[in-house]
Backbone:
């Protein structure tokens, strides 16, 4: 980036748009430019462990992008909470896989952005299945918590 | 609360301790005192939908607490990101159900706290299963995202 160039993402919304664009394009370099280059970043893929730090988070995305599945996201906002230096976005991810007739079951994602000298950057992505089809209380997990 | 009493939770950590204490005690009133009494709060129980607003969030907890399961939480911190007015805590919830020999599979939770006139209050709880036992890439979900 040239020194005269403005910060990459002027708002959390701009960073979020770049995150899902990189995801759709399966572009690991663009994806990692959305993340804060910091030790305290954390990424939780659905049903996975929490991975932390730039190297591990980057490795996780490269593994996902190696799968050859091409995804298209429709975002349904749930919550946006923002302060001067942190912003929290909660949304449904409606995912269409290229070549599949029907969309996948939706995911719920919490994305946290931090204002840095390089603009707003992602510090947490927590995604999990939102199994909206199941009857209330029909699973051990739902009953437990 | 008497007017001379200090804010209920002076730190995000104090609010988080109160959250898990209320959860263990299945105390809906204590639980809702941890939440910000605001329209923009959101709660995501594992494999559930996102519920928003005080009435819906409160109803969800009362349903869970009606299950008679008594839980004991051991918290394993993953990430804490804090600014002046917002704090994000990510942790593993290791859950022991009273009367069961073995702990349940761990959950991952993202808890977001906001500084209010009444101290730090919860504005987001996003919990999801962390299925650490599965082999990498062994499920459709893991391969997808």
Residues:
């Amino acid at each position: 980036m040239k020194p005269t160039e403005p910060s990459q993402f002027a708002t959390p919304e701009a960073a979020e748009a770049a995150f899902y664009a990189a995801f759709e394009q399966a572009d690991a370099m663009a994806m990692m430019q959305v993340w804060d280059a910091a030790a305290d970043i954390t990424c939780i893929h659905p049903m996975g462990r929490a991975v932390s730090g730039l190297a591990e988070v980057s490795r996780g995305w490269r593994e996902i992008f190696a799968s050859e599945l091409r995804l298209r996201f429709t975002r349904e906002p749930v919550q946006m909470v923002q302060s001067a230096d942190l912003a929290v976005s909660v949304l449904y991810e409606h995912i269409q896989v290229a070549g599949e007739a029907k969309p996948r079951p939706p995911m719920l994602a919490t994305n946290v952005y931090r204002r840095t000298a390089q603009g707003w950057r992602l510090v947490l992505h927590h995604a999990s299945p939102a199994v909206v089809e199941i009857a209330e209380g029909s699973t051990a997990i739902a009953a437990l918590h």
